[in-house]
């Protein structure tokens, strides 16, 4: 009998989790008490390896280029890709929100209040990404600070040359050990996914979602179209890779992102899929993916567009074209400006609402389904990171030829 592949196992865990969650809808505390710990354990195992993996892989990635100029070129391409796709994502969210008008006809009490998170200034964000104590940054899992420190290490290894080879070999070995740890953890993946999804379904059953079903449809439809059109379109444009094969290779990371709602938590599996299934060399994936997991928030920006229009419609307010363009600009910049900040999604939404004069109380309206929406937007964020890595590898002429040949045959 043929052994089931990891994506199939994860999908089975996802389906079983949904079924069990529906069974325990009347008593969600059972799922939360007895099933959720399986998901928590899985997440803890992944979190255990994130910091050493990001540090070692980014040091290796930035040092492996052997050329500081090349590293800068890859960095500029990556940031440009992230900004363009983020702007397209929030525009797409606004488009579907205008068509579906999720806030019209809803009768929801508007006396709920919520406090806006403190929005850091761009200057503070830039200053705070440089760690004063790299050890503390790693202890606190401050990803932006870890990335900056790792980039300095990698660039310095390149500049020092042969004398730094033992130092490079240390991080290269650490990265390989981390990859092996990830492989071991993923054997537990289907059970972990089951433990994550069942409590969510049990707690947020169909009846609880009906009042805000149009919001969910708008966000999920926008996410699907963005992934299918923008991501697979970019991948096909630059590499001629068959979109079906791209999504097939990315599937394990996409499903894990969907269930964990954590781009950083999914990073180890994202790197594994990108390198082994999509043919991206480690020198590029280890630079693009950790950076993307920290600052690339296409799905979150898309969600901002839908939610801003939803809040405006619920309050009976109109957002004109200029205001909607303000939403696009604010959400695009905020996707980087709030990176690495706890509660970044809430901070981004309050920032967007403030930019067009909408009441912050609107944030409370979608609080009950935010976990459901978070699953879709995290999946999009992760997919976008993988698509970016494939595009950058192709523009650098480093996408594995065997993968490209396979894709061209299947196209």
Structure characterization notes:
Helices cover 78% and strands 0% of the residues. The protein has 19 helices and no strands. It has helices at 6-23, 28-64, 68-100, 122-128, 134-139, 143-160, 165-186, 189-203, 206-209, 213-239, 243-260, 263-276, 282-295, 298-314, 321-337, 344-355, 362-365, 370-395, 401-410. It has one domain: Proton glutamate symport protein (Orthogonal Bundle). It is mainly α.
Q: Which short descriptors sum up this protein?
A:
single chain, 411 residues, mainly alpha, Proton glutamate symport protein, 78% helix, disordered C terminus
What general form does the structure show?
globular
Structural class comes to mainly alpha
Q: Roughly how much helix do the residues carry, as a percent range?
A: over 70%
Which CATH-level-2 architecture?
Orthogonal Bundle
Termini separation: 30 Å
CATH topology: Proton glutamate symport protein
CATH level 1 class label: Mainly Alpha
How many domains would you count in the coordinates?
1
What is the C-alpha radius of gyration, as a whole number of Å? 21 Å
CATH superfamily: Sodium:dicarboxylate symporter
